[in-house]
Design brief:
The protein contains 5 helices and 3 strands. The longest helix is centred in the last third of the chain and has 18 residues. Helices cover 47% and strands 14% of the residues.
Amino acid sequence: MRKNPIISILSQGKEVQLKFVVKDEIEVIQVSEWLKSIQTVAPIPIVIIQPERYSFEESPEGSSRIIYLDRMKDLIEWCEKYLSEFNYRVLPQLHYLIYRGEKGR
């Protein structure tokens, strides 16, 4: 049976980070479940969680960076609820906030 390449890298003890771009609470739960499933076979490094831009900027009022940042509060709450046992960081996609999704940036 072929070993999962991510588990292979984590098992080597190298300094790595895992990054997940999520669109909703269900995906945060899926990240948590996956991390729990591998923690017995590999050390869990720092986990970076970023909001998927298109899902997080939607609103009846339209799209904006303010809506995106406001929705990040939801993401932080989901991470506190489901990822508290892991060393995680919630980070915005800065290129989106700075360049407003301008192509090529």
